[in-house]
Amino acid sequence: MGITFQVAGRSTCDRARVGAIIVKDRRILTTGYNGAPAGLAHCDDIGHLIVGGHCVRTLHAEQNAIIQAALHGVSVAGGAIYVTHQPCLTCAKMIINAGIRRVIYAGHYPDQNAVAFLQAARVELVAHPAPGKLEPADEAPMNNV
Ligand SMILES: [Zn+2]
Ligand SMILES: [Zn+2]
Predict the structure, then answer these.
(1) C-alpha 39: how far from its chain's center?
(2) Residues 43/12, Cβ–Cβ less than 8 Å
(3) Looking at residue 79, what is its pLDDT?
(4) Looking at 62, 124, 135, 139, which residue is catalytic?
(5) Which ranges in 10-137 belong to alpha helices (H)?
């Protein structure tokens, strides 16, 4: 989880610095953070692109970690994903279809549909406190993504 927070530090949208790492057989396969698509301008440089109260310029950290696996031809099936924040519904659906079986998250994100989808797909959901923090994971600070 400590490495996941280091990855989150590379995020280029300051509405939420999110990091994700996909692990399988105790090896890190891919990493991701939330940011604009490759080659496009980033929020930190030109500002957010807000639609419906959300910044839509970025791909989420989980999406970028899964896409990086596809880009390099690495199977993440049966793996686990560490995320600094609980996944949103779109990321939850991608995690399910990528065959990832376990989600370990630090910060709470209020998306009950995402939780319901992951549970229905029998993906294990594990709360893990952020490194260096004693309070429960659901009290970790979180901006609206
Ligand atoms: Zn942004
Ligand atoms: Zn997401």
Answers:
(1) 21
(2) yes
(3) 98
(4) 62
(5) 43-46, 61-72, 89-97, 112-120
